[in-house]
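Q&A log
Question type: sequence-to-structure
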Amino acid sequence: GALRRELRSSNPDLAEISTHADGNDILVLKTCGPYSEAFRWGACDNSGEWRAGWSARFRVVEGQLVREALDLSGAVRGEPRPLARGVPLRELDEKGFSVEKDGSLFTISISMRRTFRDGSELRRVFSTAVKALPGLLGN
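Response status: OK
Response body:
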């Protein structure tokens, strides 16, 4: 959904991938703006309006993968938007949210866990590869 769309229109050279203390990855993106004369990089705010110089940050907060809009100073603007629930902390060699980048190809894995009242557990891993094609697809 939203993460794939933003990855497709992002600038892979401006993407920042880091690892949080909880073991999950953090991804910060800038996407191509709606201007035809030259590439400008930024991100949409929570209302969907694209803003030059802003970034979109994807990270795990309290078991949820969220998208945060960061302004020019790097401050979070508005409420984080939840994208997936039940994302665990890193376990052994597996992260709940993992991002790898090879050139313009991003590989994203999201692990989700749900525990039922009887104590049983359901675990699912979603993985996708997305190639960034900034400017070709627009926003």
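Response note: The chain has a mean pLDDT of 88.
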